[in-house]
Every structure is written in C-alpha cells, then in structure tokens.
Amino acid sequence: MEKATVIGAFGFFGFHLCKILLERGYEVVGIPYGNESASYKEDMMNEIGRNGNFQSMPYESKAEFLEDPGVIVISMYDWLNLDDHKNCLQSVSSIIEKKDWEGSVVLILPIELAFTEDCIAESESETIMKVYLPTLFGPYQPERYIFQEVILGKTDSPDPNQEYTGDAIYCDDAAEKVIELIERGKAENFVLRSNCKDNWRSCAELLGISLPESLQSNHIINEGIQIESVAASVSNKEGLARQRRSAIRTICEAWNL
C-alpha cells in the first residue's frame, strides 16, 4: 500500500488531498499545523478520521514520521496566509534539510509565488516537487476568501484585490491533479490551471459578485514552471453549491440547530 504524509492536513487543500488519497487506497498520516481551518476541523476529522487508513499525528512528533513517511506533502497553500507563516517556512526548511529517507517531498504553494523569485526550498534535490495553486473553491474554503465571505453574508462589496482572481479550480480536482503528478514521479515544478477560461470570474458571477471590467492582469510565470491543465469534474454551480451546503451545515452545528 502506498503511503503519504500530509503536513497541513486540516488546512483547506490539505484536507481535500487527504480525502482523495484515502479514496485511492493510500495509507495517510495527517499532521495539522497551527489553527488552519479551525472552524471546520471537527467536521474534517469526522469525514476522514473514520477511515482505517488515516492516522492523525501532532506536529511535534514529526521525528517519528520521518522514519517512514512515504511521500511527504507539505501544504503551504494555507500557511502562507497565516500570521505565523515565518515559523512555517522555518519548519519546512528544517524538514527538508534533515531529509534522510527514501521518497519525495511535494510543496504545495499559492500561485503568487510562481510570479516571484521565491526562496522556498531552493534545493537541487531530485526528490522535491513544487506545485503552485490558484484560488481553490469548494467545501471548507476559509472565510478570508471572497466566495466564502459572500456565502456567509459577511460582505456586500468584496475587494477582488484581496486574492488571486486570475483563475479558480474546484478543490477536489486540484487534489486529483496533484496526486497524478506525484504518481508520475518527476520532481519538477508545476502550476495548475483550469481548462475553463476566466474561471474565477465565472464563479464570482454565479454568486452575484459585482466585478470591475478588468481584474488582475496575466502574470508571467517564472521560467522552469510547467503548466498543468485541470479538467472540472463538476460544474462551477455544483461546486459552489457544495461549498454553500458545508458552510450552512457548520453554522447549524455551531448553533445546535
């Protein structure tokens, strides 16, 4: 049985990656970092924690999983938007520097870093892969993202400059693609792109979000990063409906309704 260790397992992307890995028959060790997606963690644990192939382990015990971690996926998609992102970067660096096991390391990064000279894991190791993600949507999207803010009724006039609006991908589809890249076994750098043009705007319009005629301009991706097209498994309408249902369920549970 294939094994994967996911650091940031109860972040937005980390959770969906764990879920899809388990569906594919992987043995998964999930390690949370900080309080990412804290409002949804109990629901996330209920959804994947009952799977006999899933084991949750505290971050402090990372020395134990380094003995036989399988592929290590470090989901920094959520971390870099948190207040303690500097500690996150230090932790990632320490894990990679101490790498003395067989297997690969996959770094999941926000797409903004694909446009800059980022210094994360600038290693020549042939076992480190970077995957850059645009805005993801779907169940358990954090409240700092525009779609979730609108769904929760927390804003009437969101600022599209607060997040990447150049593209959007449904969370499970991004997880499926990352697993496909892992199974290819090539430690290269990739950016995921929806095969639907202007997909962030399409989702925003379904939520009734008023937008300026022009959003973010097309950024130039750094040299050496390959573009991977991601096909949609569900329509944007259905993906947002699933996100809305999970948000309503969490609210009802919090209020014991």
Tell me what the structure shows.
The chain contains 9 helices and 10 strands. With 257 residues, the chain is an alpha/beta fold. It has a single domain (3-138, 167-197, 218-234), classed as Rossmann fold, CATH 3.40.50. The strands form 2 sheets. Strands 3-2-1-4-5-6-9-10 form an 8-stranded parallel β-sheet. Strand 7 (135-137), helix 6 (146-151) and strand 8 (168-170) form a beta-alpha-beta unit. Helix 1 (12-23) crosses helix 7 (171-184). 40% of the residues are buried. The model has no long low-confidence stretch (mean pLDDT 84).
Strand content: 15-25%
Shape: globular
The percent range for helix content is 25-40%
Q: Which strand order does the major sheet show? A: 3-2-1-4-5-6-9-10
Query: How many helices does DSSP assign?
Result: 9
Main sheet specs: 8 strands, parallel
- Please name the fourth-level CATH homologous superfamily: NAD(P)-binding Rossmann-like Domain
Which second-level CATH architecture applies? 3-Layer(aba) Sandwich
Number of domains: 1
Assign the CATH class: Alpha Beta
Order of helices and strands, N to C? EHEHEHEHHEEEHEHEHEH
C-alpha Rg, in Å? Answer: 18 Å
How many strand elements? 10
Mean pLDDT: 84
Query: What is the CATH topology classification name?
Result: Rossmann fold
Poorly predicted regions are none
Distance between the termini: 41 Å
Which structural class do you get from the secondary structure elements? alpha/beta
Briefly characterize the structure.
This protein has 257 residues and is α/β, with parallel strands linked by helices. It has helices spanning 12-23, 41-48, 62-65, 76-79, 85-97, 146-151, 171-184, 199-206, 236-254; strands spanning 3-7, 27-31, 54-56, 71-75, 105-110, 128-133, 135-137, 168-170, 189-194, 225-230.
